[in-house]
Fold this sequence. Notes:
By secondary structure, the chain is mainly beta. It has a domain at 110-300: Clam (outer membrane lipoprotein receptor (LolB), chain A), CATH 2.50.20. It has two helices and 14 strands. The chain has helices at residues 114-126, 206-211; strands at residues 72-73, 82-83, 128-139, 144-155, 159-166, 170-174, 178-183, 192-198, 222-225, 230-234, 243-251, 256-264, 269-279, 296-300. Strands 9-10-11-12-13-3-4-5-6-7-8-14 form a twelve-stranded mixed β-sheet. The protein has a two-stranded antiparallel sheet with strand order 1-2. A hairpin with an 8-residue loop joins β1 (72-73) and β2 (82-83). The protein is globular and about 80 Å long.
Amino acid sequence: MVVSRAFLFLPLSIAIAFTLSVLYAYGEDTAAPAIKTETPATAPPSPPVATENPAPSAQNSPMPASEIPLTPVYNPWGSIPVHRDPPSKIKPKPAPKKTPKPQATSKGTTKLPLILQEIQAKYVQAVTLTAEFKQVNEVIALGTKKNSSGIIMIKRPNKLRWETHQPDRNILVSDGRKFWFYTPPFDESEHGQLIERRSSEIQSRLANALLSGSFSAVADMKIKQGKGSTFELTPKKGSAGTVIKAHVEIDIDLKLIKKVILEHQGGNRSEISLSKIVLAQPMGDELFIFTPPPNTDVVTQ
């Protein structure tokens, strides 16, 4: 998005766990003592008493109850510490009930209000957009406001032509891979200047996405409806360059985007108003490639 030379490439402005506790039971490390009884000589010897837990081998012998610690120990099968109590005190616990996870309908994207879904569908079907724009940029540090106007052309999914006519002429063109920003010379004795940048190097394309109705292109954004036909959008921190909040004003009847306001860190503010909006106008791809005229200084960044 272009604001003017003073705002050249102003950064614009776009995912859970269950724990399982396992308790171990230990057997008693004691054997029943032998009981001596006097038996008549004619009586046969008593059979051995069967025990519920046969004596374990030395290798698998459990820890004596007196040596079992009662302090919390690490449970290798879960993140919850458990207490090892003597076997006689261990009570079986019912298996925890599993709560089903809610299924995300569209991971990483924002659930849009119905009217914004309808506008987005309309813009997607139209493919192209052209409109006249008026822009007001406010810089708090300098205490200044600057007005500019011109024509914007957008061709989905990522082509842009932004021509500023007033007060200073300049043009921003993108074919989705590169951005060209051209400033013509002030007079014949000077050279024009062209700055080329890769599209991936542009910190934020939030304004272009909103103006073209590409609301789903910006992930993790909180949306709430304000007064009338205005929506407030708060992007996830760091996902939209310096933009901390955006406002979108729509025409509910025509399902068109009329205005976008961007609030930046530090209090700076950009307001873009659209008029004479035309959708689905044929546009050739040559409009979104820029060839510099003679006597142009090219700067690659």
